[in-house]
Design brief:
about 260 residues, alpha/beta, L-arginine/glycine Amidinotransferase, Chain A, three-stranded mixed β-sheet, 15 strands, about 25% strand
Amino acid sequence: MAMWLAITREVSTGIGRCELTHVRRQPINVELAQLQHQLYEECLAELKCRVVRLPTTPDMPDSVFIEDTCVAFDELAVIARLGAVSRRGETEAVAALLSDYRPVVWIEPPGTLDGGDVLVLGPNVYIGESTRTNADAVNQMQSFLEPHGYVVRPLLVRQCLHLKSAVCQVGDGVILINPAWLDAGSFSHVTAIHVDPDEPAAANALRVGNTVIFPSSYPKTAAKLAAHGIAVKTVDLSELAKAEGAVTCCSIVFHA
């Protein structure tokens, strides 16, 4: 039977110098961020993932947000060319590890892609055109994926960093969405749970099997998920949220 593999990366001691787009800079308690990240990894392990943690360095402040470096499909892994120039050194180690599990292809210039802008719903691959991901990368993704039966669907995102800041899968045919941050009509074929209006940043959720890992900071939206019969396991990532991170950002989860 296929096993879930979760690739993570340790919290850099330089995280206070992270890239920020939509949030104001605040002091980050590095030791607390590292503890929260460790508990997140333990949560992944409790959900039967084998967790493989990569090391980092102080000069890669954003590297804990490993999701942005790659998108892993059953057939191949696409290595991103990150939208923030300061982050482009993060991909080499990830590509080397993933090459043990998948054929690897790379986004080439002038394309830029962050993995957080990619949402896979069955054969549909939604790609957010954001401040980090451009149309050239969308075209490259199309050339990689169409031979494998996927349909690439670009979407404009607004007021948030990545597509997955605004929408994530939380069940079979079920998404969690903030309709203020993208065109919700693009998802009319699935059931949509809207975030609580008091929690606009609550759409980011990590589905592992039949359970959703979800930030403890958004209890009203967590209650909405539970009311729809979705199993929720909450984690505190409040320090990483100061670096504009969330639950999907901190791992690459796929069947190994």
